[in-house]
Design a protein that fits this description.
By secondary structure, the chain is mainly α. The chain contains 11 helices and no strands.
């Protein structure tokens, strides 16, 4: 019977593993320092505190609208035509719309669909664009060329026009369909940023050192390159949240996005536009909620960019 020999690591192998571990520790320390410095910078910015407070409030509106209003727009008798276009009063702060529905309650409940579309689309575009961008940047060659050409095709189609075309095919205006359509059209931006960051980082000394020490491509990608490419992706996704919320409102305003009986700020604006001169409150309140939401996310994206981009300090 032949005895199996147990291979013991040689001194060279042990030294190689030690050097690889040191390279990983330096990369992790570099990324931790960037995040720590960025967070310290954020806490000093009044704009960050203000925008974050508004966003927390908006998330509460989306998650638990019953905390802000005891009524539900989906109950029988909620809308009374006798109250049509009545102005704001002490009991109804935003007044009534053309169907006699309380605008304050509809505005509160409308936050859910608008914010869910923005969040789901942002997550979808980040995952799809980020993974494809990393693949193109790491592998290169014909895969990079094909993915880049596909990206150019989608980039040439504006999100509103593309949304109109694709939504006319689905003919179902719910949150998930709108999110899917905007994810399909919005991922190229994240792809280009991730691809550029990967190409830039894969030639840095710490990556070359890890490769020379024998680290495989997947280990290099997820342990070395990915952590050092997240900052610009976080910045652009934060800003895109507001953009996608505005895009959903635009599609709903044009009658191709969220459809009744669902509630959307874009739908409310569309219903009120013809009576703006006689009853401006029906349009101003949902439009104001939309504007504040988009502005809060864009402000947050600006301050995050300033904090995490060393060139902006």
């Amino acid at each position: 019977m032949s005895e199996k020999t147990i291979e013991k690591p040689t001194p060279n192998d042990a030294m190689t593993m030690e050097r690889e571990a040191e390279a990983e520790e330096r990369a992790a320390a570099r990324q931790a320092s960037l995040l720590k410095d960025g967070w310290a910078e954020l806490r000093k910015r009044p704009m960050f505190i203000t925008s974050a407070a508004v966003i927390v409030l908006l998330l509460l509106l989306a998650i638990a609208p019953s905390l802000f209003t005891a009524r539900s727009p989906f109950t029988d008798g909620f809308c009374q035509l006798t109250n049509s276009m009545d102005p704001p009063s002490s009991g109804h702060l935003f007044g009534y719309d053309v169907q006699g529905c309380d605008i304050y309650t509809r505005t509160v409940w409308g936050a859910r669909n608008s914010i869910v579309v923005g969040v789901v689309t942002t997550i979808g575009t980040t995952l799809l664009g980020g993974l494809l961008g990393m693949l193109a940047g790491l592998v290169g060659g014909w895969i990079d060329a094909v993915l880049s050409r596909i990206t150019e095709v989608f980039s040439a189609l504006p999100i509103i026009i593309g949304g109109l075309l694709i939504m006319s095919i689905f003919r179902t205006g719910d949150v998930w369909t709108v999110s899917f359509v905007m994810t399909t059209l919005g991922w190229p931006q994240v792809f280009r940023i991730m691809r550029g960051e990967v190409i830039s980082n894969k030639y840095h000394d710490y990556v070359l050192a890890a490769r020379a020490l024998g680290a495989d491509s997947w280990r290099i990608a997820f342990r070395h390159i990915l952590p050092n490419t997240l900052a610009p992706v976080i910045v652009i996704t934060t800003m895109n949240l507001g953009v996608y919320i505005a895009a959903e409102a635009a599609l709903s305003y044009l009658g191709i996005g969220i459809q009744p009986p669902n509630i959307s700020w874009g739908l409310m604006i569309s219903d009120a536009q013809d009576r703006f001169l006689t009853s401006p409150h029906a349009l101003l309140f949902p439009a104001g909620a939309l504007s504040i939401t988009v502005l809060a996310f864009i402000m947050l994206g600006d301050v995050v960019r300033d904090a995490f981009d060393p060139k902006m300090r």
